[in-house]
Amino acid sequence: MKKNRILLLLLIISMGILLTGCNQNDKSDSRSDDSLYVGYISAGFPAVFMPWLSNQGISPTVSSMIYSTLFSYDEENDEFLPVLGKSWEYVVEPDQVPQDQDYLEVRVEIDELATWSNGTPVTTEDIYLTFDLASDFSRSNHAGTLAWTGDLKHDYNADRSGELVRQGIFTVNHPGDYEFTEEDSNVVYFHVDKVLGAITPLFTTILILPEQEYNIISQELKLNTTSPTEELMYLFKNPMGSGPFTLNVDNSGPGVIVLERRDDYHLKDDDGGILYKVEGIKFINYLDEIVAINAIKEGDIDVINSSVSNIYVDNLSENENVSVDTSSSAYVQALTLNVNVPEKYSTPERELLKDPILREAIKLAIDQEYLISESLDGQGSMVRGGLFDENNKYVNDTLPFNKIDLAKANQLLDAAGYLVEDGDKFRSKDGVSLRFEITSNPGLKTTINYIQVLFEQVGIEIVYHEGGNNATKDYFYLGDFDMTIQGVSFIMSNVDMMMRAHFVTVGYSSNYGRVVDEDLAAKVNEMRSTLNYDRKIELIKELQSDIAALNYKIPLYTSSMSSAYRTDVFSGWVSVKGTGIYNDESLQNLTRRQ
Amino acid sequence: MKIDYVIKRILHTVLIFLAVITLNFFIPRIGVDDPAERYYPPQLGSMTDEEYDEIKALTREQYGFDKSNLAQYAEYVKRLFSGDLGNSFQPGRPKVMEMILERLPWTLVLSVSTMVISAFFGITYGTFAANQRGRLADTALLASSTVLTALPSFIIALILSMVLGFGLGIFPCYADSEMMTSFDWSLAEIGNVLYNAALPIISMRIGGIVGYAVSTRNSVIVVSSDDYILTARAKGLSNSRILYSHTLTNYLLPIVTRFMMGLSGLIGGAVVIEKVFNWNGMGTLFINANLNSDYPLMMGVMLFLSSIALLANLTADLLYFVLDPRVQDGGRR
Fold it and tell me: CB A147 to CB B59 under 8 A?
């Protein structure tokens, strides 16, 4: 009897410990350095950083801190901000360019104070080599990672063997038809086929490489060779950039990446002081979100560099030193229908999706407000049919929001011969049931469950189908899906590329649902090629109406991002739409609390 | 006969290894029309069809896909035998062997520790339980074995993490990532590694200890009732003499098998535990390779794990040869 009591007591104590959950042993006070600790959720960090090819996981984030672009871009004000480029101007304003000229000349002055991390100055030779390499498949074979170089007005030879007949970039050592003067030693001329805004990615996404290191690249030693030489591998493992931070190679590995601030970085704050206030950044890898959540509560990290799941938000908010910032994401989630299935993957159900009446009924069955309240716990906003998010200054706000109208949807389906046979729950036509799979990653399963509920009301059966981890490779490109949920982001600086990807290119492209609409494609191409800025904006707004009318990608919502950060170690966090609380502005503002 | 056995086992292992190499090469190629498309899927519709054809042609040439499968296989085998597992698809193309060697020590910390700990405690307790047959120590072992061997290690991991980590704060709930990059073989660092590895090791091995204990107990009981043990008792030998001179060598055989099989499984089998405790080992490397369709890395890890399994099996066979005279005599006894 006595033994039983002791056992019972032990059991109660154990249960008590379990229920108390996480012990708040705050470790933030015992930090050994002044670095910002950033939690990152992934399967592990890479060992090498080839800036152009590192386009997955944490690589772009780290590369962009070590290397620099020519400019950064303020989307809100259509304004280029200096980085390696000090200033820029059109040689001839777009509205004064001769009719027969299909490009614009842009003059960029390189900041003479900009240096590489070994102390040598950044020169126009670095810029030339970078764009020259990026444009040359035979040496870099980058497969579209740097597709933005397509904005350069290069001329290739007729047989498309890849040889450039005329470069779209000119410097004092590569003058083309230009006559450079002594003062032009820091000047680069670009010939571009886009106007301001649309040429942004050319200047804001291509990280400049040091010519002194990368001049070894040739057709024999390609940049992304399958077997890098020791010399090339050394460059990838020991990146030398012109950015505000350097990589501490010795202290970095699969679980941690250490960046140290360059105090000689050429850009300064308004008072002439160091621009980035944090002395260093330590990215700590977590294999699972829950571990990262515990780590921020424990004070092991200051911020999580990704949106945290809604289920953890309340739990995090209970900690007095942890805050959760909610900001709008840059992505519109759209239900994408496979409207032009390759023969290999064709099914009778998929063929039905070519019918515009069925697509319109599907649109009318979607209730954005319901999806936002039920599947996102209210953390999202509605979207118009044109797929531009509501905060975008180029959104066509004359377009109405998609509204649910089940009666009209049922009426349309009845009239088009999609009928519910006796004893059936769902509609069919000519013996083919309206039964579709939504292929997606498990993260969107909740949303799909609610779409199932909505579609049942119009007699359409929806089944969740788990797609691979890499949607583009696993099913988008192949065209092997009925429907999927796709994040779409259109902004001025990517609209040339992304509208082409979504609505023009078929065949090998990853335009996902492969819509073929000649009028839409022609208008997208006109928008891409016009050198008149006002006309471009006008076309972007018109295109939104055309996109909405196709019902090919039907907007569901824009979800909010929840960023978790600690407030007891650093102050000065800045929330930026689309990126959350960990961003460049925060890094420039954060100061260590005493 | 003795040499025949050894040569036969080694040849057997080599043949299986060649089969593994062959499967490892051909399986990822099944159902792939054009490997260049796996290496370079079109990105965001940024290219025209002509541009994509051009880049695929370059990719085929670069990776040797323009050669026949047999020619590629010959090249693959040639590279393998020079110790080259190829280059990962990751940007910058790091060497697969370097990536594996970077993670391997951290996996070995868990796997070797857990093997040794579970073998030591399991065998000790199992022997004790066999001698206490029918008493509390034995009954407790049998009763707990059903639950503990059936309970998945990740459940044990979560409970331990909650109680010993978050609740009592005795051990860290997740590994210190900086520890793994700045390790310097000092006593303090070794202590820190063991401290961080405590919960993963305990989680992985609670079931293992019980498994070893039950297996040892059963072996001891079976061996103890053999005629030669009864004869030894009749001769008046002490219990400890009987245990160490007669019983031990015989019940070691199934234990050796268990140990070696466990070793091959543990290296790649700690994926969930690695995730729960944020331990960057081989398991997560393999998962990462899978998620990113990094075929050279997947092939490299698979080959590495298969090789360890084969080596473990060969070692077990050779240990049998040493420990069991019946094997030495070709089963004629």
Answer: no
